[in-house]
Amino acid sequence: MKRTRLLSRLWEFQNKYGYIPNNAISEIAQKLRVSKIEIEGVISFYHFFHRKPTGKYIIYLNNSIISEFNGFADIKAAFEKETGCTFNSYDNNPLFSLFETSCIGLSDQEPAALINFYPFTHLTPEKVKSIIEKLRNYEAIESIANNPTCKIQYTPTEEKTIFFRNYTIGNSLKKIKPNNQNKLLANIEKAKLEGRGGAFFSTAAKWNACKASKNTKKYIICNADEGEPGTFKDKALLNNYPGLVIEGMIIAAFITGSKNGFIYLRAEYKYLLKKLENTINEFTEKGFLGKNILGIDAFNFKIKIELGAGAYVCGAETALIESLEGFRGEPRIRKYFPTENGYLGHSTVVNNVETFAMASRIIELGPNFINTIGTKQSKGTKIISIAGDVAKPGIYEIEWGTSIQQLLHLSQATAPHYIQISGPSGECINNSEFHRKICEEDLICGGSIMVFNKFRSIIQILENFTKFFKIESCGACTPCRAGNQILHEKILKIKRGICTSKDLEEIKQWGKIMQYSSRCGLGQYAANTLMMAVDKFNDYFNLKVETCTDNCNVEFDMQNAVYDYDLIINTQANNLQ
Ligand code: SF4
């Protein structure tokens, strides 16, 4: 057995037994010739692998902030009441096990849960009661699950719509001709395509680096591990236009000379697996995948789908590669780009779902057409998922340069006050910034906008975000591991009314330490929102501090965690010098 098969082998045990038993670990360790502890280490990294028996139905209830504001607590209580189980514990119930989980990509339909990875949306206590009754009566789960389709609420005029226009299989692939790799790459460059996962790195530069590599093997990886809370736009593409994404991968393979591709699909989107497999089969039957594609000699490319197992950090490209190789999804130290040393040491392109879909449209429609849309630096359109206090949550394909105000109007936001751009690792804006435009020149956005009205507690939003990062930090480096813990505790202090202005200062000091010295984007960006919120909503925070004055001498038991903040901050600051 190859190490790269580890995750899929673990999934086989997880699916068969509901957990991974001791003998499975012994068997895998023996086959891989590694210690059992090594396998335990991998299992413990992923939220969806269990070491203790679970019930027939594993229920994962999303605890994102959108879910919290839509009744998470009531739904949690309803599941516990109806099943007799307790969340996040293994209580030996043969039928049910309950767990909380981070965002499952259904923010437009919250509260939502996955039951054996089937989606159940718009939950109410009554609906929970009915679901549990049906499961107890052995009704087929497929027949009672909800359709996960998200509504495409807005596209620009017909001429300006790029993604959600008519799609005919093979339309972009027609442009592939023997030896025209340079021309295709030039078109990608001309349309200024940048990575749509949030990093906005030049796609042409990335593909060119892989093309130029002398490495004997090359890989194309589609990052379908869309884990940023509030984001579900890649799901919309995979669900509605899977062929567009696959065509983008085929074009990348042709340009770079790659023979193998992977789609790393987050387990939360397991319900899309069949559709993706069917699309790959259709492409193979039509001669768009396999050997001598389009009749071009030695143009061979195949795509395999690998399932993640619940780890937000695997959205980071080197963590994703580690996971594909069968390891804990810990991001690598940035010594090489994946195009230099990626999957199994080979030259590898990792791009996000939307990037491949856009590449496909660029080749189909031509860069001149794409360049007529958008702004000077951001060409074409962008897909945004909008959720929160809006009457029309869902998917919006917008021209780059659209303002927040326009989006609030389109989505029918009610009393917007605090807007979160690009998920918790992005930035927050207040109502003095609603004129800002989504584009590289102004406000860059990876794909999600969460709208919160003036009746929502900012502390509750930030408590949810800091808790999320504390849980999702892989723990490999100290600034992120300790920093996220401390930031969460700072928010709890503010919430409990025992903070001082020193706490607000320390939030910023810790944020800077994390930005400068964390190994990967998770740690580098985790404090951004909190630091910005302290500045942008300073009246709110100052009021919190003022009303804390009477209590500020109260001893704060930080859930038994004892930190000497001054010592840690000074040590880290010295290390940075
Ligand atoms: Fe892990 Fe956080 Fe360090 Fe990234 S920054 S490697 S998530 S501990």
Q: Which CATH class of the largest domain?
A: Alpha Beta
- What fraction of residues sit in β-strands? 5-15%
CATH architecture of the largest domain, by name, is: 3-Layer(aba) Sandwich
Q: Total number of helical segments? A: 23
Sum up the overall morphology in one term. globular
- Poorly predicted runs: 554-577
Major sheet: order of its strands? 5-11-10-14-12-13
Number of domains: 5
- The helix/strand class is alpha/beta
Please give a structural write-up:
Belongs to the complex I 51 kDa subunit family. This is NAD(P)-dependent nickel-iron dehydrogenase flavin-containing subunit. Residues 459-504 form the NADH-ubiquinone oxidoreductase 51kDa subunit iron-sulphur binding domain. The model is unreliable at 554-577 (pLDDT under 50). This protein starts with 5 loop residues before the first helix and ends with a helix. It is built from 23 helices and 14 strands. The protein has 5 domains: 3-45, no CATH class; 57-144, Glutaredoxin (3-Layer(aba) Sandwich); 153-370, Rossmann fold, CATH 3.40.50; 381-453, Roll (Ubiquitin-like (UB roll)); 458-576, de novo design (two linked rop proteins) (Up-down Bundle), CATH 1.20.1440.230. With 577 residues, it is α/β, with parallel strands linked by helices. 50% of the residues are buried. Strands 5-11-10-14-12-13 form a 6-stranded mixed beta sheet. Strands 2-1-3-4 form a 4-stranded mixed beta sheet. Residues 313, 330-331, 473-477, 480-481, 518-520, 522-523 line the site of iron/sulfur cluster. Iron/sulfur cluster binds at residues 313, 330-331, 473-477, 480-481, 518-520, 522-523.
